[in-house]
Write a structure and sequence with these properties.
globular; seven-stranded mixed β-sheet; 15 helices; alpha/beta
Length: 404
C-alpha cells in the first residue's frame, strides 16, 4: 500500500498558495463526515490569517442536496461548470449504488487525468471504485460496508484502516476520522505545524495515522483489561468469517482452554462459544440490514457453510428470519422515502423556501466591506439575500477562475 508521501506529489510547492477543494455531494451524504472535512479548511484560513483554502460545493446538476439530517445544502456548481480544483472529495451516503451515473464517472476520470487529488468519504470509495480507477489500489470504506464493497469490487484492495492514501487517491471510513484524513491533506499542502494547530483548536489530542483500525479496541468496547483475554477477543473479531477452535485460540495466547473459559465467565459473564456466536450474529445482522448480499453469501461471511443452519441460528438470536428482516427494512425504507417526497411536494406547493440569514460554514472574507444584506455561505462563496428578494454572490477571496 502506498503511503502518505504519494499524496505529496500533488501538493502545493508554495506554502501560501490558495488551494481549491471541491466537495461532490450526493443525496443523504453524512453531515458529520462532511463537517469534519470542510471545517479544518476554514480553521486553516482563520489560524493563518491567510486564505490558504477555498471550497466549492458540487452536485450532479447543481441543485441543492439533502444531507443525512434531512435538510438541503446550497450548491455552488454542477459537474458541468465546476471550477478547476486541486482536490475533489466525494461524499456519499448509505446507499452509494444509487449514485452510479455515467456523467459523474466520466467527470471523475477526467479529473484524475488532470492530476486532481481524488478523495472519498464514508461510502465515497464506491463511486471512485466504479470508475475503475481504484483497481489494484488500496482504499478504505466504512466497516459496515466492507463485505459488500469487496463483493462488488474484487479488484480493489479494501482495508479496515481509518483512512488510506494510495497515489493520487485518499479515502476515509467517514465519521470523525475524516478530520484525521483532512489534517493529512493539510500536512501535504501546508505543513504539519498548521495541522497540529488545527487539531488543538478542535480539542483533537492526537492526529491519527492511516494505519489505525476503524473500530474500538476490546479494552474500550468491553471494559476489560486482561491482556490475554483482549488478545483472544481480537482473534475472534478478525476470524468471524472462519471461526477458530477454542483450543487453538487458547494455544495462540499461551493459555489452556479451561483458563480461557474462566476468563470469559469472570470478565464477560458468558462462555467463549456464546461470545463468539454473538460476534458472528452481530456481523450477520449488519450484512443483512446494510447490504444486498444474498443470504447464503452472508452466511459464508459469518462462518456458516449451510444457509438453512445460518437462518435458524439467526431466527433463534433475533426472533426473525434473515429474509423477513431484510424485507421489513426495505418496506420501512420505501415508506420513509415516500414521506420525504410528499414533504418535498408540500414545500413546492407552498412556495420556495427563503435562504437562511445565518449560514453553513461562514468562511472569513478578506478585504471585503461590511454588508447589511443577510449572508450565508455555500462552499467558499458567500451568498447574500437581498431584502427585495433574490440573491447575489461575492467570492470574497477572488472569483472562481478556470473551469473544467
Amino acid at each position: 500500500m502506498a503511503n502518505s508521501t504519494s499524496m505529496a506529489s500533488g501538493a502545493s510547492k508554495h506554502p501560501l498558495e490558495c488551494v481549491r477543494v471541491g466537495f461532490y455531494l450526493t443525496p443523504e451524504f453524512p453531515l458529520l463526515a462532511f463537517a469534519a472535512a470542510l471545517d479544518p479548511l476554514r480553521q486553516a484560513n482563520r489560524l493563518s490569517e491567510t486564505p490558504l483554502y477555498e471550497w466549492v460545493l458540487i452536485s450532479q446538476d447543481g441543485s441543492p442536496v439533502e444531507n443525512s439530517a434531512g435538510f438541503a445544502v446550497p450548491i455552488d456548481n454542477s459537474i458541468e461548470n465546476a471550477p478547476r480544483c486541486q482536490v475533489v472529495i466525494v461524499c456519499c451516503g448509505a446507499d452509494p449504488a444509487r449514485n452510479f451515473n455515467n456523467r459523474v464517472l466520466t467527470w471523475l476520470r477526467r479529473l484524475n487525468r488532470q492530476g486532481v487529488l481524488l478523495g472519498g468519504i464514508s461510502t465515497g470509495a464506491y463511486l471512485l471504485a466504479r470508475t475503475g480507477l481504484l483497481d489494484g489500489r488500496s482504499c478504505t470504506v466504512h466497516w459496515e460496508n466492507f463485505a459488500d464493497f469487496q463483493e462488488m469490487f474484487p479488484n480493489v484492495l479494501a482495508t479496515n484502516d481509518i483512512f488510506t492514501v494510495d497515489g493520487s487517491f485518499i479515502t476515509s471510513s467517514g465519521g470523525t476520522v475524516t478530520l484525521d484524513m483532512m489534517l493529512s491533506i493539510i500536512v501535504s499542502f501546508h505543513g504539519r505545524s498548521l495541522a497540529v494547530a488545527i487539531s488543538d483548536q478542535f480539542n483533537h489530542p492526537q492526529i491519527r495515522g492511516q494505519g489505525e483500525a476503524q473500530r474500538m479496541t476490546p479494552e474500550a468496547r468491553y471494559g476489560i483489561t486482561h491482556t490475554k483475554l483482549c488478545d483472544v477477543v481480537r482473534l475472534m473479531q478478525s476470524s468471524v468469517h472462519a471461526p477458530i477452535n477454542l483450543a487453538v485460540l487458547a494455544k495462540r495466547v499461551g493459555l489452556s482452554s479451561r483458563q480461557v473459559e474462566r476468563l470469559f465467565l469472570s470478565h464477560l459473564d458468558r462462555t467463549p462459544i456464546d461470545f463468539y456466536s454473538e460476534l458472528r450474529m452481530e456481523r450477520a445482522h449488519e450484512l443483512i440490514c446494510r447490504t444486498s448480499l444474498p443470504v447464503d453469501v452472508v452466511a459464508q461471511h459469518c462462518g456458516y457453510s449451510s444457509a438453512p443452519h445460518f437462518a435458524r441460528r439467526y431466527r433463534l438470536h433475533f426472533g426473525v428470519s434473515p429474509a423477513a428482516e431484510r424485507n421489513a427494512r426495505s418496506a420501512k425504507s420505501a415508506e420513509v422515502s415516500q414521506v420525504s417526497h410528499l414533504a418535498d411536494d408540500l414545500v413546492l406547493q407552498n412556495g420556495s423556501q427563503t435562504a437562511p440569514s445565518e449560514g453553513i460554514y461562514n468562511a472569513p472574507t478578506y478585504g471585503t466591506k461590511p454588508d447589511n444584506r443577510a449572508a450565508y455561505s455555500a462552499g467558499g462563496v458567500r451568498h447574500f439575500s437581498d431584502p427585495n428578494g433574490g440573491t447575489s454572490a461575492d467570492h470574497g477571496r477572488g472569483r472562481v477562475g478556470e473551469q473544467t
